[in-house]
Every structure is written in C-alpha cells, then in structure tokens.
C-alpha cells in the first residue's frame, strides 16, 4: 500500500537552498561563443569496451564503491541482448574494460545499478521477459559468462507501459530503490524500501511502494527520450535527449517530487564533439552518482556509426 511520504522523508536530511548543480557548467546556447565548462570537476574519461558489440551505442553506467568498479551496458543482436562491461577505477582519463559479461536477453536496453550493500546488480528487464516494462532484473555479474543468481522482480502492474525501461537505481546508503514507469504516456518515479528485496526476498512489489509522482511533461517534449536516472539520497537526477540533435535536458527533483532544478539547454560536450571530424555523434546515455567524491557522472556516446566510444563527464554536486 502506498504510504505518506512524510514517513520516508524522516530518513533524509533537509536540503539546503543551494541548487545541486552549477548551471553555467552545463548549459550554454548552441551558438554561444562560450562553451559549457567542467568547472572544478575532473577532465572527462573515455571508455574502451570489450566483448560482443563493444563499438555499439553505450546505454548506461553504474558504480560499485565496495569493489572499486564501474560498469557499463550496451545491447547486441536481434532480439536485443544486454552486455555488461567492467572497469577498474584509476587516475587515467582513458579506461579500458577489465572484462565483459556474455550477452543476455534478460538484461534490458537502458539503465543499470549496483546495490551498495550487496554489490548485486540491477537492470531494466530485457527482451526475454514478457511485459518487460513492469519488471527489473537482479543478478550477479560474471566475467566471460552469463549472469548468475538472476531474479525477476515486478515493480509495476498492468496499468503501466509494457515496454518502458524501468532504470532501477539505489540511494547511496542502499535503503531505497527508485524505478521509472510510464502510465498513459506520463513518466513516473516510484520509490521502494530495498529491504523488501534484500531481506524479505519479495519478487512482487507492485503495491508496496512508498511513493509515486509524475515527471514534468517538458522533460520528454519534442520526442526526447528518457536516458538516465540516479540519486544522491537527497536529490533525484533525470537525463533526456533527442538523439544527436540540439541541447539535452537534466531535471533535478527532491524525494517529494518537487522540481528543484530544470535545465533544458545542456550543451556539455557539444563543442568538443563538433570540433572533431572523428566525432559525428553526441548523445547522453546515462547518469550515476559518485557518492564518495560528490560528483554526477554524465555518460555520452560519441563517435561515428558503428564505432562508438563512451565518454564520462564528472560534475560537482553542491552539498
């Protein structure tokens, strides 16, 4: 049963009046003589993947601080199969994958996350799962093999879209799980206590959510796709774009569903991409929060058709 969100908000410290992201580090007009800067965040990281489909469009990322690892996802084949790459954290700005998992039809098109308390991975449900928009997948990463200990968990019922990518993500303390759904063409965020999965071992959470609220319709207007969902435990970060066209969007909410920050002119990375003949494609594909360094990782796919790289921009979160 849905609960009053006042119960949930007791677990979170009130946010300050300072907005979490520096707008001038992210937004500029496309024809501006100035460019969006990284400010005081680190230089971008370029990712070199391995495994099947390693030059396909990258579709999401996640951090596992317990193992000091970063994961990415992309899809391969028809019907689609999700492929996970694993990277070790280091100080270089060029990261090569340590290994990759074999493709799996259980793993969906967009969005991955790591449970910070257990290091189990979670993903949108894949093509092998009927009505995939109602489900998330829990699994353990296995290098050079298919995922193990898989579990399909229902988070929406038949009133919701059957094809939406659910994009599971956790608060940094691991207490709450967030997912995205779509109800009559309106995107929504649902929030669950993660102990329903971790301790109670439940696989049907449809009516056990703490809260649900709609996302501003402007977030996906002009046929922009919902590309990323992450949280730092105080704010919820959303990313959308219209493929390789025009500025991108980042919206920031608090846990009550209040829109805190709205950026419709995100041009981060555009000028770098447009200045290189080797980069014809510039599309953001995911978000994750680095809770240790208070940074938002914004993942872009860059390159040309059939030869795509991942590039991560790290932006400071004001605390």
UniProtKB/TrEMBL annotation:
Pfam families: Phage_RBD_prop. Gene3D superfamilies: TolB, C-terminal domain. SUPFAM superfamilies: 3-carboxy-cis,cis-mucoante lactonizing enzyme. Residues 58-313 form the P68 RBP/TagC-like beta-propeller domain. This is P68 RBP/TagC-like beta-propeller domain-containing protein. It comes from Acinetobacter kookii.
């Amino acid at each position: 049963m849905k609960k009053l969100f006042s119960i949930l908000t007791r677990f979170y410290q009130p946010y300050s009046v300072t907005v979490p992201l520096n707008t001038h580090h992210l937004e500029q007009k496309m024809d501006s003589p100035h460019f969006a800067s990284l400010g005081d965040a680190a230089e971008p990281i370029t990712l070199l993947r391995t495994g099947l489909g390693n030059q396909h469009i990258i579709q999401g990322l996640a951090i596992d601080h317990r193992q000091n690892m970063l994961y990415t996802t992309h899809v391969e084949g028809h019907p689609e199969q999700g492929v996970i790459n694993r990277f070790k954290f280091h100080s270089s700005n060029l990261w090569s994958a340590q290994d990759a998992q074999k493709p799996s039809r259980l793993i969906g098109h967009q969005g991955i996350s790591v449970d910070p308390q257990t290091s189990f991975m979670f993903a949108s449900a894949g093509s092998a799962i009927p009505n995939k928009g109602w489900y998330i997948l829990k699994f353990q990463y296995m290098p050079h093999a298919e995922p193990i200990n898989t579990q399909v968990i229902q988070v929406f019922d038949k009133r919701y879209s059957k094809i939406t990518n659910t994009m599971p993500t956790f608060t940094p303390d691991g207490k709450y799980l967030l997912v995205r759904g779509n109800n009559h063409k309106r995107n929504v965020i649902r929030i669950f206590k993660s102990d329903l999965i971790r301790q109670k071992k439940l696989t049907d959470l449809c009516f056990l959510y703490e809260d649900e609220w709609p996302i501003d319709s402007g977030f996906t207007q002009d046929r922009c796709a919902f590309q990323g969902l992450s949280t730092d435990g105080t704010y919820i970060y959303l990313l959308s774009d219209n493929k390789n066209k025009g500025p991108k969007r980042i919206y920031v909410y608090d846990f009550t569903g209040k829109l805190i920050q709205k950026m419709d002119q995100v041009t981060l990375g555009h000028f770098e991409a447009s200045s290189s003949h080797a980069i014809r494609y510039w599309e953001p594909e995911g978000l994750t929060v680095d809770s240790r360094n208070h940074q938002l990782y914004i993942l872009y796919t860059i390159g040309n058709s059939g030869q795509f790289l991942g590039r991560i921009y790290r932006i400071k979160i004001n605390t």
